[in-house]
Write a structure and sequence with these properties.
By secondary structure, the protein is α/β, with parallel strands linked by helices. Helix content is about 50%, strand content about 10%. It has a five-stranded parallel sheet, with helices on one face. Strands 1-2-4-3 form a four-stranded antiparallel sheet, covered by helices on one side. A three-stranded antiparallel sheet has the order 8-9-10.
């Protein structure tokens, strides 16, 4: 209906130009919004205020001309128009026009709400990308649910979307993982060696070490003397845990030689496969799993590009990027004094690689603790003369999990954390996917386990799914009664006899496509969760007040038609959020 009114206004403005009543140059995007108060009509437009200066007349005078032109034509969907305040135009639509969306719902079914807003544009969404040093925890789950929903919404709005997971399979943390696995392997072989303070301590390390032992037997072993000789002290012994773990990594490399890569790969592959399986079970899938280790050539190309443009300099044996020249708070090291490139150098190369792939927009979904990375990455893009505006970084706050009144602490290194898999087992995929996206991604979130498992209207996902199941139950009962629904007859009846409740419900259905497009372009799936909650609430109120399967055929058709339309929209919306729409509960 909004699009129809906007089209009427556009035609009216063209008429006024043709009559010489306003200049030919008058032009602006026409905004039409649903009103919050029925006394101001169903929709309102500020077009007269926007165009008044261009038209060379007061807004109210222009509004009067637009309304007069509209009234001279034939707009069967508009019952009346009023001018309010300084020049707003309020539109009261005809009763029949309130139900035009219903016919579209039945014609398009699962495609209802989808659009071509992003047609011809190619987007990449990179999300989760957790270091493969342990299982995903509940914090990662929020990024997974948000990223997957954003990608699905963008596709529904017509964008071509590539989903990517950046696998950090290089660098120090992966070497710490390898050493953690190896020490547990050695302990399993009977070597009495203390576990490093800075190693990964979760039970999953024991599992990987056991598989390493099953695969290689005692081939990767060594003596306590070989392992301990001239190692610095660990933190628990009065030393520095960082220096100790780095020394232990070097010792592992020396003793294992080429076999070190076997240990490294055992840990990496086991955890990546676990992450892939976990996310797949969560309904999160990717077009590409991109390996950081594959970036070696890109890193050198990126550094050469920065060097050729004069943005690198040497200091204290290291190579620095002059990122302060592009708004960062300090310059950044890209190559250490030992010749190794930094994580930041990999980030530069990875983003250069993304841009080479020709995306119109690159969307990074990062944890909130990566806020400081945004300025430096955008600085690097600018320095390489790439369009930094094509990079859109969205930060996701970790979800805080509560069991009763106790907050559960999470640390991958210590091994004391609640995994995403454990959360899913407890509350189910549907509740987890929905709850994670009920708030803006950058807002803090307390995950209420008791609410997520409750079967009440206070649990939004249950309340919405129950509306869908309730309608499915009504359909089964109708079939048992030998009753079928004529949706065309139902729409006709509503157009002449619809009650205020039915009009409100139909209007709610009609704004679904707009809600979907806005949620997609603004990358805010919480808009869809709120819409579905409101739709379910209005339906439950309606269903409780009106018996659907009445004897009167015309009335029954009308009520069944409206219910079936609600069911279809709930199904479509939940599907985009990765949530099921059950027929029984």
């Amino acid at each position: 209906m909004k699009d129809s009114i906007a089209a009427h206004i556009e035609r009216s403005i063209d008429h006024l130009k043709q009559q010489g009543l306003i200049p030919e140059s008058v032009s602006a995007r026409i905004n039409v919004d649903a009103t919050k108060d029925k006394k101001f009509g169903d929709f309102a437009s500020n077009v007269a205020l926007v165009l008044a200066k261009q038209a060379g007349m007061p807004p109210r005078a222009l509004a009067e001309k637009i309304v007069a032109d509209l009234e001279s034509g034939s707009q069967n969907d508009i019952e009346k128009m009023e001018i309010a305040g300084p020049g707003f135009i309020n539109f009261f639509v005809s009763n029949a026009s309130n139900y035009t969306a219903l016919q579209e719902i039945f014609e398009k079914t699962e495609a209802f709400g989808k659009s071509t807003v992003g047609e011809g544009q190619k987007y990449q969404v990179e999300f989760v990308s957790a270091n493969p040093t342990g299982p995903l925890h509940v914090g990662h789950g929020r990024g997974a649910a948000y990223g997957a929903s954003v990608a699905d919404l963008l596709e529904a709005a017509g964008y071509q979307v590539d989903r990517e997971y950046y696998v950090n399979d290089a660098g120090r943390q992966m070497n710490i993982l390898a050493v953690s696995v190896w020490i547990r392997y050695l302990q399993g072989q009977g070597l009495d060696f203390p576990f490093p303070d800075n190693a990964y301590k979760g039970d999953y390390i024991l599992d990987i070490a056991q598989r390493l032992s099953e695969r290689f037997g005692s081939e990767l072993g060594c003596s306590i003397e070989q392992l301990s000789e001239e190692l610095p002290l660990d933190e628990s012994q009065g030393g520095d845990k960082e220096q100790y773990i780095d020394a232990l990594i070097q010792r592992a490399r020396q003793l294992l030689g080429d076999r070190y890569q076997d240990v490294f790969n055992q840990g990496l592959n086991a955890i990546v496969e676990d992450i892939r399986e976990d996310l797949g079970e969560f309904g999160v899938h990717y077009n590409n799993w991109f390996s950081e280790a594959s970036l070696s050539e890109d890193i050198e190309q990126a550094l050469e590009r920065l060097q050729s443009k004069g943005h690198l300099y040497e200091k204290e044996g290291a190579l620095w990027f002059r990122s302060t020249a592009f708004g960062d708070d300090k310059d950044r090291v890209v190559r250490r004094d030992n010749g190794e490139t930094t994580y930041f150098a990999s980030d530069i190369a990875y983003h250069m690689n993304k841009f080479k792939r020709g995306y119109d927009k690159v969307i990074n979904i990062w944890g909130a603790d990566h806020h400081g990375y945004i300025a430096r990455v955008k600085a690097a893009l600018q320095a390489m003369e790439l369009d930094a505006e094509k990079l859109d970084v969205r930060l996701v706050q970790f979800a805080i999990l509560y069991r009763g009144q106790e907050r559960v602490q999470m640390s991958t290194r210590s091994g004391s954390f609640v995994t995403l898999r454990e959360l899913r087992d407890e509350v189910g995929n549907d509740a987890a996917r929905f709850f994670y996206v009920t708030r803006k991604a950058e807002q803090h979130m307390d995950f209420d386990l008791d609410l997520a498992k409750s079967e009440s209207k206070d649990n939004p996902v249950y309340y919405i799914q129950y509306a869908h199941a309730r309608i499915a139950s009504m359909i089964r009962k109708a079939r048992d009664m030998g009753v079928e629904c004529d949706t065309s007859a139902g729409i006709d009846y509503l157009g002449s006899n619809g009650t205020d409740n039915e009009i409100d419900l139909a209007k709610r259905l009609s704004i679904y496509p707009e809600t979907l497009a806005t949620a997609a372009t603004q990358l805010e799936p919480h808009m869809l969760t709120h819409y579905l909650r409101d739709l379910a609430s209005e339906f439950h109120t309606y269903y409780n007040a009106h018996k659907v399967l009445v004897d009167d055929t015309e009335l029954r058709n009308a009520r069944m038609t409206l219910s079936l339309a609600v069911q279809q929209v709930i199904h479509n919306g939940l599907r985009l959020l990765g949530v099921s729409a059950p027929n029984e509960m």
